[in-house]
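thread: overnight batch results

M.L. [08:02]
morning all. the overnight job finished for the chain we discussed friday. pasting input first so we're all looking at the same thing
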Amino acid sequence: MSVNAGRKFVEWVKSRFGLRTNALRPVPEYSMNPFYWLGALTVIAFGLQVFTGLLMMIYYVPTVDQAYSSTQFIFRNVPLGGLLETVHLYGAYAMIMLALLHLFRGYFVSVQKRPREMMWVIGMLMGLTVMGFGLTGYLLPWTVISKSATDVSIGMLSFLPAQIGPIITFLVAGDGSSSAELTRFFDLHIVVLPAALLSLLALKMFLFEAHGAAEPVTGARESKEIPWFPTVYLYFAMLGCIFIAIIFVASALFPINLPAQFTPQAASNYVPQPEWYFLWMYQILKFASFEGSGIYYALGAVTILLAGLVILPFIDRGGERNPRRRPLYTTIGIIVVAELILLTVWGFFTPGQVIPDAEALKITGTVALAIALISAFVFKKTGTRRTSSVTGSVLRAMMLPFRNRWVTSVFVVLLCIGSVCFANVVDSFSMGSVNLIVLAPNFVGLFTSFYVMARITRNLAVASRSSSF
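M.L. [08:03]
and the structure it wrote out:
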């Protein structure tokens, strides 16, 4: 069907049904970019979850005695049941990942600036709701992995203040029995959280209609407005179809297997480990300082971080949105992203291990310090220079490592050398007696590698504007 034929069909429908205006405002041409549609793709993922979840509810029985067996029945006896379960799981992963990408994309381009403060707050509440879906849905198959990990999460509620901890625990897990826990999580997953997300989505769309898409970070510019019917709808449908196709292809190529059923005996032989989207928090709780009563400080720090993100529009009230001219917030954002990835990967490879404070400080501190120093150097050299096209600069910067492979290889080698030297320097001081024969060459190696990496980073930053190196 041609575009003209599609437009004629839309006009026919509007005239026959008495529709005088479009349901959604036209969108500016600059927003026809996949990065602007991460939130919309999250909504598509939610729709996929609703569809697959309703199909599974035909067979699933939310009781302790039948939760696992009914899930197993879907895998073994329902036509394409294994694919259905896999699509539902991968759809949940995609929904959480898209929500995180939407969050960090919005943070770095400062979409929370006036007049979109409340859009940001509502978006954060939607993101927390999405994480709630991951937590509650994880328990429902009643496997040894899901039940053990969920018990760890519920156990953390006991460290909340006495005024609210028991109330929240009762609302989430009931009277503490396995039956009440499963029933509450099932109700939260299929009734409470969907209702909350749909309500927040309606409010978010109302605000989006009022304020529209945020302008590019370079500032407002003249941009042709594109009507939703049929152009934007066609674009959105194409993105959605590509996204759903990827989910189905991944599900067909990498089907999941149902883990063993939960029993106290099986749980005693299993080290509980949460899913990847909570693994970073769990890894923090494994630091030696946060063992026992120290968990209050860890949970307090995580709560402050999340609260700070929610109220960010009322903290960062400046008018500048370009991340290249926001060194403090850009550096903090990069450090947070890097630490989240580091803690997630680190937690995956160290299940159940208590991390000594010195090791935790050395690894997390090294990453934060390196990013801060490199960021300070780059901003000092390039922060005051403007680019004619932010999108073009980003794409050129992303291609530079591939166009300059020998430079990238040298940078990776220097990074490894510098990391080893830094670890040796820290170990030398932590042992109490300093061996200058060992310390001197490691210190020289650390300084040299950092200096050369900084020069390479600076040259790459300059080359991202000139497309040559």
